[in-house]
UniProtKB/TrEMBL annotation:
Protein name: cAMP-binding domain of CRP or a regulatory subunit of cAMP-dependent protein kinases
Coiled coil: none
Organism encoding this protein: Halomonas korlensis
Chain ranges of the HTH crp-type domain: 147-213
GO CC annotations, alphabetized: cytosol
Keyword rRNA-binding: no
Keywords: DNA-binding, Kinase, Transcription, Transcription regulation, Transferase
One Gene Ontology term of the molecular function aspect: DNA binding
Amino acid sequence: MTSLTQIPVTNQLLAQLPADERDVFMAACDTVELAFGEVLVEPAGQITHVYFPLDGFISLIAILVDDNRLEVAMAGREGMMGISLVLGVDEAPLSALVQGAGSALRMEAARFQLLLLSSPVLHQRLKRYLYVMMNQLARSSACNHFHQVEARLARWLLMTQDRAGSDRLQLTHEFLAMMLGVRRAGITLAAIALQARGLIHYHRGEITVLDRPGLIEASCGCYTADRALYAKVLAPS
């Protein structure tokens, strides 16, 4: 039987750790399968586990008192779910919904916080990731307010493609409308526009990215800014 410490680490936050820290951390994790649509935590709920996705990904969703919902961030193999524990806060500020099924490393929150005390490199990387997340949340808020739906849809498709590792994405207009906080008709018009430009193909709940460079050009600058910030702040030392 292969131990967890022998499994190649595909989560980018963990892959750059020194071998001693990485091995101790991996030994304390379980590998779990994330099911599409699974809710890992609700706003104001207690964070009982942290998740480091390997090939699945998680949407972080703000929910208002009138039950309106808006995705404000994603966590795939580049990140984690449960980052507020780094600040000593075990209450979730956002809903965490599995958007892409796949595997993840999971650890109990209490054990994670204890391990941080003896894992200085991991602790530093997670503080830097928290900084990236803060910037991305702020940019997402401005993007949703100022940018057109077509550009926002292009950005969201690129973010999803990065984490799914595939050109084919299973997405309905209803789901996209919820993620972007717009009406379904707005998503339909934006998807038609992107398809007319030959950037995507949409048919019965499946979107295929046909022209990634063109989709990047069609998106707002928030997509490239997010990637540049992550690369700058979390580049291997």
